[in-house]
């Protein structure tokens, strides 16, 4: 499928340019801009976050545009990563309040979320997709998937679950989800069903946007498995949210 920039409602990134750089140069330029907030396009990154919820397929049209103008799919502007990190901090404060964590336990929890749940798992997942898809799904041996793009796909797919599970769900936890009622596990498990489905679907959209890949529909195979597990958990009386909230608390004690 070919995407046209004119069909995307997202604004243009302000720093687009027509040049080609080596992978090492691109990485160095990205890292060098991490602390230069005045050079980041936060408006563009904010719009991407909104569209990851309402129309995630349109976000990848801008990745196609970047490939045409900068010869790379991966983001060259760290604004999205900076906003993502800010949301991690905000939602972790919510967790600390709900779980009644002390200040130092909150710091422990925040570091765990950033370096294990997000970055650590992201490195493993992005590398696994990068290796498997390059090895078994490529149509053309002369082109391959950028590892940076694989990591961007993980961040894109991780953002809606972050907001759903680490923000929205917290408002219902103490008053409703933490009990042993059926409605408690129904609401809690439904939050997880929506969040994990978002992750799988956005991951599929990211890789299916690449013309060099085939059989990307196989990335949707986990969805029916997730739905089956959802109904089994309801029938078995297993409250996923309550179980994981206890796990979150115990790992920082």
TrEMBL record:
Residue intervals passing through the bilayer: 42-60, 80-102, 109-133, 153-174, 186-207, 219-245
InterPro entries from the UniProt entry: UNC-50
Main subcellular localisation: membrane
Compartment annotation: Membrane
Assigned keywords, A-Z: Membrane, Transmembrane, Transmembrane helix
GO terms under cellular component: Golgi membrane
Entry keyword Chloroplast: no
Domain of life where this protein originates: Eukaryota
Pfam families: UNC-50
Topology in membrane: Multi-pass membrane protein
Family label: Belongs to the unc-50 family.
Protein name per Swiss-Prot or TrEMBL: Unc-50-like protein
